[in-house]
Amino acid sequence: MSNLMVFTGVVSAFLTGLLGSVHCIGMCGGIVGTLTMQLLPEIRQSPLRLFPYLLTYNLGRIASYTFAGLLVGGLGSSFTAVLPEPHKLSIYISGGFMIALGIYLGSWWSTLDWLERLGAKLWRRIEPLGRRFFPVDKHWKMLGVGAIWGWLPCGLVYTALALALSASLDQGGPTRAALLMFAFGLGTLPTLLATGSAAYWLAKFTRHLWVRRAAGILAIGFGLYLIVIPHADHAQHHHDLSQAHEEMDHSAHHNMH
């Protein structure tokens, strides 16, 4: 597997998190706000003292994403040997889910609601574990809650997991799948680390429909890119090979005469 493919996958996952953060601020922003209110007033009112708590929470969340990537990657790798064209399938999965995410973000159609409903069944079993960390007044409790909340049903996370699955189908294995989920988590960080007036401004900004639709269009465009470019490269590769064979045949024919 080329370094370029690995780099492209990591960038795809990071952009998924970054573009989808307009969705994050609506769902996870409220959770972060609830957790923050349990801290002492002198911590809440000081961005410098609050930041380590928010960072710890997000590290727990990203750790869960990374572990989920390992699980999905292991599952995908086990099917690679029996699938007829795993590389082509991986392209369609990653591109298709990016397009579905774009439609979802733009509020044109709830393309990922069915996945969130399935995830809700698992969430009902996991969510009670998070209550053991309340009140969330210490760093290790923030880490624990973040690790639990990383399993919250979310179409954005499921899109990233689809990218991770496609990477494992394309001979990437569990390690690459975990790397992609880690990159996805990093993409969501800028929005979810915002505090105070910055968080208020982001929440207000992302409520605008045009913001969500702009992110949706970018995601759809990126999904189309993931699908179309490999086929264009494949066609160009075959064209170059055919041209090289024609030149060799022409040269051989010329030498015979």
Sheet with most strands: none
Radius of gyration: 22 Å
Calculate the mean pLDDT score and round it.
79
Pairing-aware structural class of the strands and helices?
Answer: mainly alpha
Q: Which outline best applies?
A: globular
The helix content, as a percent range, equals over 70%
Beta content comes to under 5%
List segments where confidence is low: pLDDT < 50 over at least 5 consecutive residues.
Answer: 233-242
**Count of helical regions:** 10
Task: Give the beta-strand count.
Answer: 0
Helices and strands, in N-to-C order?
A: HHHHHHHHHH
Give the N-terminus to C-terminus distance in angstroms: 44 Å
- Quaternary assembly: single chain
